[in-house]
Design brief:
By secondary structure, this protein is α+β, with helices and mostly antiparallel strands. Helices cover about 40% and strands about 25% of the residues. It has helices at about 10-65, 75-85, 130-140, 175-190, 220-230, 240-250, 290-310, 330-340, 365-375; strands at about 90-95, 100-105, 110-115, 125, 125-130, 150-155, 160-170, 195-205, 210-215, 235-240, 255-260, 265-270, 275-280, 320-325.
Length: about 375
């Protein structure tokens, strides 16, 4: 009898093929899922890395902004020098007593300096009386220098100039031009007719605002400009000696005394603002060192007392130190005497720029401040 074909006889093999096919499909699906998982992890890791870099950059930027506010940053002048040591050539000129002091620098790197004595008759009571004579002194000092390729910055004596922080009723910016001169005339007896007034808002409290005011007499400034013109100079910037000194000392709070042969400059700096300046004429003749010590100490005491009387609610902190500079105020013995007479510490000068060994820092602090103004 002929056997009939039995389809069920092939079922085991078919089942095996189906299982293998299912296994292959499962393996492909597993591999696909694994690849997708790996792609997702890689993408997530990339995003996390990108976010970390962004946070790192943000933190570094925040750190960079806070760095200059470190309280002792001025004590690390080398760090500042590296970032600002290159630049244009600068000639800084200042009248100190009966000397013309000139410093040449490239950016914040001092290269050379000179002190040129001139006839005391050029000045009268500390002010320029002979602009022609001073112009000739400056012209001679500039011989051999290509001033056309340099930035020239000059300081004029601060005699009769006044700075003060005044408090006025709160007004809009447009009204300041009217209110400030009126208040200055009332509080400081200074008029716009005879003085150049410069002012800057420092902040406000309630319905009052604090204004820094600087008054510069017009006549001495014009005479100084005449002398510079006669010397063939067109300065790119002008400054007052007290302001240049405050910039050179480079401290948030400081009491500065600059003593020269016939004059002294006194500056009180609070919160980086030269809140009080005084220029004192000592006489036509050159003063002795003993006289300079006593006079500077007396004037420092008088200046501090004046500030405290004006600011009874916020007198000067007794810990604010004194910084001495100028040809008549240099030297350790002088500093020790002033410290003993005033009861305050005297700190060394550490201006934030590069200068070679042998540079007489105390004598040229005004020039240093001028360089810092334009560098």
């Amino acid at each position: 009898m002929e056997e009939q074909n039995n389809p069920t006889a092939e079922d085991p093999k078919a089942a095996t093929r189906a299982e293998r096919k299912a296994a292959r499909e499962e393996l492909r699906r597993a591999k696909s899922e694994e690849k997708a998982r790996l792609r997702e992890e890689k993408s997530r890791a990339k995003e996390e890395k990108k976010a970390a870099k962004a946070e790192e950059k943000k933190a570094a930027k925040a750190e960079g902004k806070k760095a200059p506010k470190e309280p002792k940053a001025p004590k690390e002048p080398k760090a500042k020098k590296a970032s600002r040591g290159k630049g244009e050539r600068i000639i800084s000129i200042s009248i100190e007593g009966t000397d013309l002091r000139v410093v040449y620098s490239t950016g914040l790197s001092i290269e050379s300096w000179d002190s040129v004595a001139f006839d005391p008759q050029v000045l009268k009571v500390g002010q320029i009386a002979d602009p022609d004579g001073l112009g000739e002194v400056i012209r001679s000092a500039m011989e051999g220098r290509d001033v056309q390729k340099c930035s020239v910055v000059c300081a004029m004596p601060g005699l009769r100039s006044v700075s003060r922080v005044i408090t006025i009723p709160k007004v809009g910016k447009k009204e300041l031009a009217t209110v400030v001169p009126r208040e200055v005339n009332k509080l400081m007896t200074i008029s716009e007719e005879d003085n150049y007034l410069q002012y800057q808002e420092l902040g406000s409290e309630g319905d009052q605002m604090h204004i820094f005011v600087l008054a510069i007499p017009k006549a001495p400034l014009q005479t100084f400009m005449d002398a510079l013109k006669l010397a063939g100079l067109a300065p790119s910037a002008l400054d007052l000696k007290p302001l240049a000194l405050a910039r050179a000392v480079n401290q948030k709070d400081a009491i500065i005394a600059d003593g020269e042969s016939n004059s002294m400059e006194l500056v009180i700096v609070v919160d980086d603002v030269p809140v009080l300046i005084r220029s004192v004429f000592l006489g036509e003749g050159v003063v002795t060192q003993d006289y300079a010590v006593g006079r500077i100490s007396d004037e420092l005491g008088r200046t501090i007392l004046t500030y405290n009387e004006i600011n009874k609610d916020h007198p000067l902190d007794p810990e604010i130190p004194i910084y001495l500079c100028g040809a008549s105020a240099g030297g350790v013995p002088f500093a020790l005497n002033v410290a003993a007479l005033t009861g305050r510490t005297v700190q060394p000068l550490e201006p934030p720029l590069d200068y070679p060994d042998g540079f007489p820092v105390a004598d040229f602090m005004v020039n240093v401040g001028l360089i810092l103004k334009v560098a």
